[in-house]
Amino acid sequence: MEGTTGFGHTRWATHGAPSRENAHPFLDCQGTIALAHNGIIENHSSLRAELEAKGHKLTSQTDTETVVHMVEDAYEGNLEAALRSVLPQIQGAYAFALMHASEEGKLVVARKDSPLVVGLGTEENLFASDVHALLRETSRILYLMDGELAVITPTDVDVYAPDGSLVKREPEVVSWTVEDSEKGGFAHFMLKEIFEQPGVIHSTLLGRVSDLESDDLLRGGTSHVKLVACGTSFHAALAGKYIMEELAGVPASAELASEYRYTRASGEKPLVVLVTQSGETADTIAAAREARKRGCRTLAITNYLGCTIAREAEDVLYTRAGLEIGVAATKTFTAELMGLYLLALRFGVDTGHLTADEARKWTDELRALPRAVQSVLDSAGEIEKLAREYSNSRSMFFLGRNINYPISLEGALKMKEISYIHAEGYPAGELKHGPLALLTEETPVVALVPRDHTYEKMWGNIGEVSARGSPVIAIAYEGDDEMEKYVDHLLHVPWVKPVYSPVVNVVALQLLAYYTARERGCSIDKPRHLAKSVTVE
């Protein structure tokens, strides 16, 4: 392929099936303007009707194609001026890239609610929707803000505010390397990222466990914490509810971001903690904006410097998980748990629920978690054998109580995401309210059974499952050998304080999902129909 200027796009289908006709980039009627788009145009139907009434020929089923024809109508010799005049007519989220055949060596990009970054190279400049795509070329990154437009040439990058004024912003230097974006001898990125978790926990805790000042995050008499997130991060947030109540003595609740933004505001103003690995999740960003409209203080837990949520929230706690490439989140989930533990300990000291000595004891246990996780990783061979035995299952259940109920949800999500086995996570006490009807001898049930205040109840639930003939895989602490008599398989994890049991349990469940998917020959790092960052509603 000849040329010095160009762009490409890997499409996550929203409008129209994956096909050549619906593939980006799109051209205008004259074939002189090319456009690619990440996001969703909400008013595309009315725009399409207007364009077709003017005589434009649209050949795809996508929302995106409307924009290139709008730019065609507005074009008078300057591509960025044409795009700027079109943007106010567009409703929805977008990251656009355009080029014109008569404006050689120039790309025009713009963003709103969808991520877009510019990389400053040597005698070249580049752009992408994520930093890791640029690491082979540069570590100097310009983050475009919402509503901004940039003109990119091989030698210059000019960034413009929505009003057309020039923006001066210094690039940030990212610390990730090309090696971070390679597999490092592992068969898949997901396996590499699972095995990186001891280091991730250490990095997230480094320099923080001795600082338990809350910076008055619970100011103004706030007596409640609301944790808001989507997907895997929601499972971390739901675990965070139990963590806050246990370590901080603060009432907490968890809510899906996609639901929070449509609820009615109440009179109370909780601290809203927004959990998102990418910092670009559309529903979580919208929830942050809604929370601030309601007068709530906001704090984000995220992994990426320069992300949108870091600008939307008043305070940010970065998790330091490093680059995660596998679509199914693993190490970023564990890092989010670490962030929530740190936050809860800070709140516990601030509210007087914990003395300084008590907080130090809890943090000593936190520091021991990397060794505990490494112990789980050392048993990967045992988990691999178990996965081989159950890889032909059509359905699986994951059971937990209290703080391990969210972990059962996360274990089920990992299994369904990458192995395509139908899996459900359930609070064990709810089995008798319907799900027992689905249990058969071919329905494996994974039970999380740490020695906490729910231990005896979990024994009863295991008995309910066994009586119906379903094979039971129990994950329990080392030394709990009595359970082996009552389950089909027993996986041991190291003893940790029960509030920290999600960390060791989830690593075992990640490995179980990974080895099951590998046995089934699935596309582990890029599961079908899924994207790493969900940047549309």
Write a structural description:
With about 525 residues, the chain is of the alpha/beta class. The protein contains 16 helices and 21 strands. The strands form 4 sheets. The protein has a 7-stranded antiparallel β-sheet with strand order 1-2-3-4-8-9-10. The protein is globular, with a radius of gyration of 25 Å. The two termini are about 35 Å apart.
What descriptive keywords fit this protein?
single chain; 537 residues; alpha/beta; Glutamine Phosphoribosylpyrophosphate, subunit 1, domain 1; Rossmann fold; 3 domains; seven-stranded antiparallel β-sheet; five-stranded parallel β-sheet; globular
Brief characterization of the structure:
It contains 16 helices and 21 strands.
β-strand percent reads: 15-25%
Largest sheet: 7 strands, antiparallel
Low-confidence stretches: none
CATH architecture of the largest domain: 3-Layer(aba) Sandwich
What integer is the average pLDDT?
90
**Domains counted in the coordinates: how many?**
3
Alpha carbon gyration radius:
25 Å
What separation lies between the terminal Cα atoms? 36 Å
CATH superfamily of the largest domain: Glucose-6-phosphate isomerase like protein, domain 1
Fraction of helical residues:
25-40%
CATH topology-level fold name of the largest domain: Rossmann fold
SS-based class: alpha/beta
The general outline is globular
